[in-house]
Input
Amino acid sequence: MSFVSLLPSPFRRGRRLGGEGVIVIAVALAGTAAQGQQASDEALRDTYLSAEAAFRDQRLREAAEGYAKLAELTPGTAEVHAKLGLIHYLQGRFEEAVPSLRKALELKPSLPSVKPLLAVSLSGAGRHSEAVPDLEAGFADPSNGDLRRLIGLELQRSYVALDWTDQAARVVGELGKAYPDDPEVLYHVGRFHADMATAAMQKLLEVAPESVWGHQASGDALESLGNHALAIVEYRKALEKQPNQPGVHYSIGMAIQSSAGAAGDDEDAMEAFRQELRVDPSNALAAYELGEILRKRAHLEEARMYFLQAVDSRPEFGLGRIGLGRVLRELERPDQARPHLEKAVEVAPENEVARYQLALVYRALGDIGAAEREMGEFQRLQDEAK
Output
């Protein structure tokens, strides 16, 4: 007789197993140690039951000791070696998991899930070149179900460790498509792209620090650290190299706006955004920022022109649509504002401002039912944000 042990729920979010989905590693356990034995085998059965109880209760050290003893008592039982390898894996003792899992496969190559678990353990132990072949096979096999997610994360990790960037990028892309709402996958996808971007910027600063691109990269880095004054210095150095470099005037304007409290900031920022639009009239972000400053100053007609420029350049630009719809409403043109705010809600349904402004426009147009619906959505978003 044999038993099938499913990973207990407390382990479903354990080390390297994380994620919201239920990840189950099935390992067949030998039942001969538990039932149908003669009196002389009572110690073997008791050891098995004690080890299983420890495993279910997450007492992994005791479970490992129990299964290690079982492996000595029944060295030819593949399932016992497999379970011992699984326990070592859950303990984060990846190097110790490897020989147990290999022994299990040697005794019974058909054991389910053991081969990918061995590959994942090899990756965890830093033995990436050994891990990759079976990780690749496991990731390509849809029958691995939820386990495929874990395999993919470890495959990407091994590729990165081996500096196989193209292969890692491919796996990251596949993981993002297969698990678009998984927080752990999203973290690793974002982290991979951020690391690649950082590496590229570091390389740029090594090979061409005094180039226009080098100064622009330095400015971006300083801006991300909140050092707006030094960022502006770097951006101006970039303009000395190339006065018509797209994006640099916009970055200067944003850095100026981030320097709160300085007199004349709005004027200086507006001039930077205007300079950007002279260089690149299609820069929707610069047009939007100009429109927002002018809207806050109640220069509504001039603001409308810049918001219109923004949405003409980028029709799917939600913030631009909100800005344009808002000033049109304030200019008492709700019929013109409506399509822009409806488009804003379409492209950004979770934007509170879009919902609120659209509710005001519907009310101005006399569509009370639609106004109440949008105001209800606005209130829901506000409640969720609390």
Observations:
- Residues 183-207 form the longest helix (25 residues).
